[in-house]
Amino acid sequence: MASSSWFERQIADREWFDQYYQHSDYPRHSTHDRAFVHVLASKFNLKPGGQLLDLGCGLGWFSYLFSKAGFQVTGVDASVVGVEGARKNYYTGEINWLVGDALNLEFNAHFDVMYTGNFSPFTVRDSENEKHAAVIAQQIMHYLKPGGMFIFVWNSRLDESDPTGEWVNYSVRQIRDNFGGLEDARLLGTYATHPQLCTLLGQYALSGPVTSLTNLGVKFHTRTARIVAAVQKN
How many domains does the chain have? Predict the structure, then answer.
């Protein structure tokens, strides 16, 4: 992973997000996003009070939601603008905000939960390695305590396309293949869903039947779905 192209991409991403966060933020859907966080906690038995790492926290929305759900949150992003915005938006004193390279933090076996929502390193294709997502995941698993949970969230067309070279539309199968073979860890589940379904269906929004229907639905609509995977460290 330590190639010149990789470092160039990291720099380009950081500069892009610094510009983006000066003027914009990703859409927030308070009701659905809060329901999504609670579904994750109940589905994967995430205990409030535990230490949670939000990698690529951006302007801090999901860090804030996890904090309100009772977790002790550390939000990390490479974008100075993003982290400064997060501190300003959610000045509660209960979240530890850090600027840093999320792939090279000094934490070791520190967190009970690690959350990545559209974490940009997963967008980089390594043409020599079809399991690029596994390489990234393996690199960050050491942040977790034994028994800790990695929650991966990704917006995708689910069709395995990368039309612009900037965003990988992973399928559920690809994520299952990537995360199913991680060392000293086990994949608990991989699902496709839509955020609003967590409000309507609760935990059932992360289930086999909903995943099958979501896979079918995106074939007939241009909208993206949300992939959710949970990996537990041994």
Answer: 1
